[in-house]
Amino acid sequence: MLHDIAAGPELLTAAVAALVLVAIAGALYTHRFGLSHLLVFMAVGMLTGVDGPLGLPFDNHRLAVNVGNLALALILFDGGLRTRWVDVRRGMWPAGLLATVGVAVTALIVAGLARAVLGVSWVEGLLLGAAVSSTDAAAVFAQFSASQLRLAPRLAATIEVESAMNDPMAMVLTLGLIAWLTPLGQAGDLRVAGAGDLLPLLAEQLGLGLLMGLGGGMLAAWWVRRLPIADDHDGLAALLMAALGLLLFAVTNRSGGSGFLAVYLAGLLVRHRGERVAVMSLPGLNGYTWLAQAVLFLLLGLLVTPHEVWRLIGPALAMAAGLMFVARPAAVVLCLAPLGFSWRAQCFVAWSGLRGAVPIVLATYPVLAGLPDGWRFFDVAFVVVLLSLLVQGPTLAPLARRLGLDVQAQPGSAAAD
């Protein structure tokens, strides 16, 4: 009897460990071809899911959203800790434009494409556009690290800061548009404001996120500087940082602000004011963020039903191509051309708008809200992310070198852009 009781947890542990081992081994080999490690984790999840050899059914979108939010919070806090304040100041203005005006323009153009390709209404098209409009901080940080690119400081800061700042805008637009499509202002498991409150909701999210990020970051930096953390406490420092980031994320969200914006700003301030402890924590924190990404992409892979995605593959590919070659470039030119960015820099910023977990997580919200076509948004967002990681990710470094933007490869060239 005791053997039967223990068999269940042991089998589950063995299965999960085996999946992670297969995913890690595959990721190490695919990395040689410039492909994102995250693709392998998603592929393993799909092979494990309902259409894969194991055929495990999984449709818990609420669990995927909760895990996704925590994973993204940890990733953004880690990204803030890795970014120097001087680099942020260089890219704040262009990144801010891309994270606000750029997201709105991208969503509007995608809405027109969705209306033509999918036959949806303008509001539904805007909902899909909002879900896929933000670039993904995890994908951008991982790809820059893997490709070992050295860009001009202003250009690198613009891309990295934008990827961390545009999630709140995309999330608020997504929630507001879901409210627009649900007359009572309450959609399934999601509590959102009415359509007329979209701008106040955006102001509340960004305003409170900004205030709590700055306040929480300064308080956290003051505290960690006074803790007796020795040089051999790197493991404890990583655990401390992870706990601080998740605590601030939860408190900010509970208060009505954007936890994503708050944790990124707090990470920047902790790095600026408590650099010794922040830098010490980075190796250990890197392990936590990898674990978070691995679990998230495994879950997202499990959620996908390939035979249903295949039914929409033509329109979904058209939407992905329209986003990469029309919507994103148009938003970049509109935001960066007036600021003096060269055409080379604009081309690279447009192509570096990688999509990752954020669009898929946001695309689960219409499913949770019970919208009739919610599953279509999720399938299209999945194809958009898949194509972005397959096409844009591996070509990012070669494009930078081709345009003369890699400072290391082309010293004294156009990299000064």
Automatic annotation (TrEMBL):
One CC-aspect GO term: plasma membrane
Domain Cation/H+ exchanger transmembrane: 20-401
Chief location of this protein within or outside the cell: membrane
Bilayer disposition of the protein: Multi-pass membrane protein
Subcellular location: Cell membrane
Highest taxon above the source species: Bacteria
One function term, GO molecular function aspect: antiporter activity
Transmembrane segments: 12-31, 38-57, 63-81, 93-114, 126-147, 168-186, 206-224, 236-251, 285-304, 316-341, 348-368, 380-400
Signal peptide feature range: none
InterPro entries registered for this protein in UniProt: Cation/H_exchanger_TM, Na+/solute_symporter_sf
Any GO BP: proton transmembrane transport
Keywords assigned: Antiport, Cell membrane, Ion transport, Membrane, Transmembrane, Transmembrane helix, Transport
Protein name according to UniProt: K+/H+ antiporter
Lineage of the organism: Bacteria, Pseudomonadati, Pseudomonadota, Betaproteobacteria, Burkholderiales
